[in-house]
Amino acid sequence: MVRDVPVSEAEGLIVLAWRSGEEGLHLAVRGQPGEVRLRCRCNRSHWIVREEFSPGGARLVVSCHGCRTGRDFVLEGAELPSR
Ligand SMILES: [Zn+2]
Questions:
Q1: Ligand 1 mean position to 48 CA, how many Å?
Q2: What are phi and psi of 42, to 5 degrees?
Q3: Residue 82 within a domain
Q4: What does the alpha-carbon distance between residue 19 and residue 67 come to, in Å, rounded to a whole number?
Q5: How far is the CA of 44 from the centre of ligand 1 (A)?
């Protein structure tokens, strides 16, 4: 089950896992069954995704390839890069 979520309503999601494919960016989100597919307001929904690690925790940073709308989410369960 995949639910489309507009990026404007995606504030505060806690992302457990993500995958990016032809159908868009799919997120497994804490507290929600199934997957969420992030939709951009420009409707292109081609996301540039990166994971950022800092002492405060990991974040998933996304920005729209089309209109540069950006968001970032708490990324839970991500492994810190080994050092
Ligand atoms: Zn966009």
A1: 11
A2: -85, -5
A3: no
A4: 21
A5: 6
Which residue segment(s) compose the domain that 27 sits in? 3-75
Number of domains making up the chain: 1
Residue 37 lies in a domain: yes
pLDDT per residue as tens, the chain (83 positions): 899 999 999 999 999 999 998 889 999 999 989 999 999 999 888 999 999 998 888 999 999 999 999 999 999 976 655 55
Residue 9 belongs to a domain = yes
Asked if the structure places residue 48 within a domain, the reply is yes
**Gap from CA of 83 to ligand 1 centroid (Å):** 35
Find the 59 Cα to ligand 1 centroid distance in Å: 20
What is the pTM for the complete model shown?
A: 0.86
Query: Rounded to the nearest whole angstrom, what is the distance from the C-alpha of residue 43 to the centroid of ligand 1?
Result: 6
Span from the CA of 70 to the centroid of ligand 1 (angstroms): 9
